[in-house]
Amino acid sequence: MPLNINGTLLRKQHRNHVTVRDALNQAMDEELERDERVFLMGEEVAQYDGAYKVSRGLWKKYGDKRIIDTPISEMGFAGIAVGAAMAGLRPICEFMTFNFSMQAIDQVINSAAKTYYMSAGLQPVPIVFRGPNGASAGVAAQHSQCFAAWYAHCPGLKVVSPWNSEDAKGLLKSAIRDDNPVVFLENELMYGVPFEMSEDSQSKDFTIPIGKAKIERQGNHVTLVSHSRFVGHCLDAAAVLAKEGIECEVINLRTIRPMDVESIETSVMKTNHLVTVEGGWPQFGVGAEICARVMEGSAFNFLDAPVTRVTGVDIPMPYAKILEDHSLPQVKDIIFSVKKTLNV
Amino acid sequence: MKTMLTVISNALCRITGKNVGAQTVPEGARVAVTRNFADFTPQVTFDIKKCDLHRLEAGPPVKAELTREQGLQYYRTMQMVRRVELKADQLYKQKIIRGFCHLYDGQEACAAGIEAAISPSDHLITAYRAHGYTYTRGVSIRQILAELTGRKGGVAKGKGGSMHMYAPHFYGGNGIVGAQVPLGAGIALACQYRGNNQVCVTLYGDGAANQGQLFETFNMAALWKLPCVFICENNKYGMGTAVERAAASTDYYKRGDFIPGLRVDGMDVLSVREATRFAADHCRAGKGPIVMELQTYRYHGHSMSDPGVSYRTREEIQEVRSKSDPISLLRERMLSNNMASAEEFKEMDVEIRKEVDDAAQFATSDPEPPLEDLCNHVFSNNPPLDVRGTHPWSKLKSVS
């Protein structure tokens, strides 16, 4: 049964179902129209309509000046994008996947993230780095890494990870309007998934604040915290667990950095149990950070059990389907972990 | 008589940059200057070296005009940079400056010549040997020295240090070798995007010339005809490695391949100026980017931790000092053409030394930044945020 944006069952009045891809497209279209300093650059973003069709139609509408196809030169074009941002434009720099951002990571960290601080406020860098992050399907080890933890480690960056279409649109608009470097982690497997979009999201000024998590589902027994695609897995697990009388509170982080720890703590103080779910590797990951923060804060004394992390398996991503399926958290892994945490 | 002496004195002050009107000549006093203003040659045309060209039919002119006023201004700029760098050397040895300090003495003609050819509305970005450009792009020497000494009066409030100084249309000061080159092309893209006829001068060294990201940048700059003047300051050594040991081709002006290039005598401020003007005109005409190699030399080692004599001889350094020093070259040209007097130069030197001493005094007495400033400037235009300190009980505040 389709859920609406509040996590409750769909009511009779229908909203259009918009895929994550189209929501991202709408966000960029609206921001390109609103501010002529905004432009998009990356591989295949223009004439190919985007490697994953996220920028479909934009080149036709805005032309060569605003939608720029680049050669396969990540370090070069990321640096060019950062320089353009320093000079006052507002670039959206697309990495075909974030795996390729490793070629350019020096420009993201040393040229973009640190500059406002090093210049004591003289030189802002209003740039968005966006693209698909994490595992896809059958693309194997070099094309499946999740970079949330790597980028979220660095001060000076904001790191955003939307789950559904509403997230995608509202957060991308905020990212583009933000005067700081934002790493915007999309998910290829989510691009084609349709979601109901709220009335509010139809407004051209609709934005979702960066740094605020969302409670997708209310519950009293255990808190599930996740980001991106695995929010959906958590909701699926919650639906199954509800039949057994276990009510999960599902938190969609929406932003990895700055993390909304307060929302997590408030929830934990109610449920006394916490399970984190992510696609990335366990060591030094998003879940690890949540554990540390909860231990350091007011919610620690409310825990009735240690925090459980559900993560990707600590290996490079294999190719064969059966192996790949077992390299990432499945709904049954979340259900199992919740029951273990609750000791039921 | 007194009125006429005052008039002459004030005129001389305008030319040398001293405070006009601040000088009054007491009645009966002798004028210190022994020549009448009208004695000096107001303008001379000098022959300058022909540039080596790559993919160019014609190059910069082989003659350069220099007015007395310009000459004194270029001299002042170069001498100021020289004295600031030597003062930085002194302060570093006294441990008042710490960390990295890459000095520019010997290369002054590059910074002065480039600035003479572009306008303040053009853009410039360089690597870490940046103090000279920080000055030519408009930052005061007090703010430069105070940044080196890590005080709150520094141009980056002490948060950046030697390699991270900024000003309007000056994008630093960049620590990662070669990273500034794509940035510069991006700034040029912004100029093209806005159609404002501005150019970006993007500097790098002979060491950075071998970075892959340069070639990625050359490709895109040429493809999109970005108004970017790429300038390689070839001072013959990348840290301790002589160019012959680092580059399969040391013809840096040709390394842009499909991008036209020129090789210029970087010790002659007039050559630098003419070449830069030529290069900027090329970009402004919509012809795309251009590569300029400035052959220059640094007297100091790579940084203050490098004595600079393990990979080159003292004789070589001394030879450059005696035969090719950019400041001496300009002074000799002006003196032998009667464009200024030796006393004038001496007075300027004294004045510049005093200015530098005053700036150093400020830089050593200004307080360090307050601890409250530690976490500020992480984000621009952002509500205040909490920053974790070294332990969980340390909750710090960050404002934009």
UniProtKB/TrEMBL annotation, chain A:
Q: Name one GO biological process term.
A: pyruvate decarboxylation to acetyl-CoA
Query: What are the Transketolase-like pyrimidine-binding domain coordinates in residue numbering?
Result: 18-193
Q: Does the keyword Hydrolase apply?
A: no
A Pfam family the protein falls into: Transket_pyr
Which cofactors does this protein require?
A: thiamine diphosphate
Q: What is the enzyme's main class?
A: oxidoreductase
Look up the EC number in the record and give it.
1.2.4.1
**Assigned GO CC terms:** mitochondrion; pyruvate dehydrogenase complex
GO molecular function annotations of the record = metal ion binding; pyruvate dehydrogenase (acetyl-transferring) activity
Which NCBIfam families does the protein's record reference?
A: PRK09212.1, PRK11892.1
| Its biological purpose | The pyruvate dehydrogenase complex catalyzes the overall conversion of pyruvate to acetyl-CoA and CO2. The pyruvate dehydrogenase complex catalyzes the overall conversion of pyruvate to acetyl-CoA and CO(2), and thereby links the glycolytic pathway to the tricarboxylic cycle.
How it assembles, according to the record, is: Heterotetramer of two PDHA1 and two PDHB subunits. The heterotetramer interacts with DLAT, and is part of the multimeric pyruvate dehydrogenase complex that contains multiple copies of pyruvate dehydrogenase (E1), dihydrolipoamide acetyltransferase (DLAT, E2) and lipoamide dehydrogenase (DLD, E3). These subunits are bound to an inner core composed of about 48 DLAT and 12 PDHX molecules. Interacts with DLAT.
Under what name is this protein listed? Answer: Pyruvate dehydrogenase E1 component subunit beta
The gene coding this protein: PDHB
From TrEMBL, chain B:
Q: Which EC class, in a word?
A: oxidoreductase
What keywords tag this UniProt record?
Carbohydrate metabolism, Glucose metabolism, Magnesium, Metal-binding, Mitochondrion, Oxidoreductase, Phosphoprotein, Pyruvate, Thiamine pyrophosphate, Transit peptide
Tagged with keyword Cell cycle: no
InterPro entries for this protein = DH_E1, PDH_E1_Alpha_Subunit, Pyrv_DH_E1_asu_subgrp-y, THDP-binding
Question: Would you name any one GO CC term?
Answer: mitochondrial matrix
Q: Where in the cell is it found?
A: Mitochondrion matrix
**Enzyme Commission number(s) from the entry:** 1.2.4.1
Q: Which Pfam families match?
A: E1_dh
Please indicate if the UniProt record lists Transit peptide as a keyword.
yes
- BP GO terms, sorted: glucose metabolic process; pyruvate decarboxylation to acetyl-CoA
Cofactor(s) for this protein?
A: Mg(2+); thiamine diphosphate
Entry's transmembrane regions:
none
- Main subcellular localisation: mitochondrion
Q: Where does the Dehydrogenase E1 component domain start and stop, copy by copy?
A: 77-371
For this chain, one GO molecular function annotation is:
pyruvate dehydrogenase (acetyl-transferring) activity
Q: Which CDD domains match?
A: TPP_E1_PDC_ADC_BCADC
Region (Disordered), start-end ranges: 357-400
Which reaction is catalysed here? N(6)-[(R)-lipoyl]-L-lysyl-[protein] + pyruvate + H(+) = N(6)-[(R)-S(8)-acetyldihydrolipoyl]-L-lysyl-[protein] + CO2
What NCBIfam families does the entry give? PDH_E1_alph_y
Q: What does the protein in this record do? A: The pyruvate dehydrogenase complex catalyzes the overall conversion of pyruvate to acetyl-CoA and CO(2), and thereby links the glycolytic pathway to the tricarboxylic cycle.
User: Could you tell me what this protein is called?
Assistant: Pyruvate dehydrogenase E1 component subunit alpha
Organism expressing this protein natively? Nothobranchius furzeri (Turquoise killifish)
Protein encoded by which gene: pdha1b
